[in-house]
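Re: that chain you flagged

S.,

Sorry for the slow reply, it's been a week of failed gels. I finally had a moment to sit down with the sequence you sent. For the record, here it is as I used it:
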Amino acid sequence: MAKMREENPEIHYNGSVFGRMLEYVRPYWKQVIVCLVLALVLTALDLYRPILIGQAIDDNIEGYDYPYVYSAGENSVSYKGESLVKLTKETFETDSRDDYAVTVLYEDAYYFFTHLTHADCAAVLEAADEIDAMTLSDGTLTVPAGGKSFSGALLTNDEMSALRRTDLEGLYRIAVIYGIVLIVYAVAGITNRWMLETLGQNIVYTIRNELFSHIHSLPLRYFDTNPVGRIVTRVTNDVESINSMYTQIIVRLFENFVLIVGYAVVMINIDWKLALLSFAFLPVIFGITIWCRTESRKIYRVVRTKISALNTFLSENISGMKLIQIFAREKEKAEEFRGRTTDLYKTQMKELLLVWIFRPLIFLVANAALAVILYRSGVSVLSGTLTLGTMYIFINYIRSFFEPIQELADQFATLQNALASAEKIFTVLDEENTIREKENPTSLGTVRGKIEFRHVWFAYEGEEYVLRDVSFVINPGEKVAFVGATGAGKSSILNLIGRYYDIQQGQILIDDVDIRELSTREIRHAIGQVQQDVFVFTGDIKSNIRLLDDSITDEQVEQSSVAVNADRFIEKLPGRYDEPVTERGATLSAGQRQLLSFARTLAYDPKILVMDEATANIDTETEELIQDALKTLMEGRTTIMVAHRLSTIQHADNILVMHKGKIRESGTHQELLEKNGIYKKLYDIQQ
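Prediction finished late last night. Pasting the structure tokens below so you have them in one place:
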């Protein structure tokens, strides 16, 4: 058999991982477009919400000092029987009328100045900030402005409410709009999240099935050099790790990009100087991100490799638990496991340390930018060049502008973990099947069962040949046995007939057709192979005979069992053919498992029967049952047997004696004994 390398380091994937992951999104492009549209809607709503609040602050909450003009209209309010319409300060500057009123705040009370000219109203507005110059007497506030003195009457709560009726209506309207925005945002967000989760699960389902199918297509050489635990990790842990890549990261990257661009445009439009001051911090953030990305990718590769190695260790030790307990090595194995987990723990701590460094650094830079903008915008508000509402909008946008980058910090571990897992998966998917088949293979039609080896040379590794110039012919219906010492090449011949490996030189023919001209499916369908170590799947007796082939009926399952005498133990089971079977058939004896494998082989009705030490683990009583069944099983079939116990192959039509990769002798049992060669020595030793 092929040599298992103790250390088989995994190869890192060198292609574009992210680009290849996007290939799996292509079949769902309509769903992705809907998600992107929803992301745009969510982005627009994110941009709009601060504007609503800023508008409420500037136009309604802080709008008490906006001037009024005496005029009747749709939005007019009443004060002492007169109609007034509220103006914004911008509208007031261009208004051409000459009868105004304005409110001034003094010591937490409001005073109303009425019937002012345009110039007088502007003067009162300008003087309203000079609190020390104002005087209050008998509920009347006097404000010196423009060389004149203006008197304002104290407003009662009812009068203030009447004057600010339109502000209250405006606040109500904005509150309703804000509520609608929140509802739309929630619906769009839930829909987007559901579609993303569905998309992610569909893609993971596709990748998992593709990976499992691809693993089935790989030759045995791959499984000789790759531990089971590593392969299981690829199909389970690594596939699940990339789920978050599709559900959280891909669309969020687009959404965050749109958010950043949207915030940048609005910020420049509000105050380009403050916007540029904010953008000055971006190079620092990008530098930190690039450094952490490079370092984390290296660490995550190591983490995934160590997890794979740990799973391999677990798989081997759980499978070999009986041996560990027989030799009382539990303590030593626990120490070895502790060493491996400690190694993984230290690597994962490096990973966490990088995340702990990255997140606070980004947070620090973002808040430094916020502090600088808060100071500069505050100065602008105090100088009157920026309104409080606009300052609120800008501060909100600054915080939101850095949120996508901070979110990247939160998802950094997930992103790098997904990319590292994807590298491992794509490395397996790129593993090529060394058993190359023709696009249009030859078909055998009805298989007769003739097998021929012509000058076959074969090695599992390099030029360490286990078969050297082997040639023989097995005619249809013949029973041929291979014998020889361990390592002589007997089992290799059986593997080559089923084309589980390819030879380096020579030809192997079935019914005079080179097996390289045939499809492996047809070859293996024609061959029924019974091995020494029988594998039994979790399920029941019936499913282990049928092996998911629905064309095999229950009647055929029972007939096959009767033919190989397996029915004798099956009928005694409580559930008979529906009796549950645990993993590896632990509830069955070695003899019962072997009988089950004979029934399985017979149910598929192969034309070529291959038995590799098929009776090695069977007691004498069971062997008698099998020997009796073999007469029926071999009838009309080409049979190839490998056995160390020469008593089991004495009935063979021809016996080929293997020694150091070559056929040294051939003949019947009696003929070989008369030659007094290798076979005679083996026979004498066993006797």
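What I noticed first: The CA atoms of residues 122 and 279 lie 38 Å apart.

Talk soon,
D.
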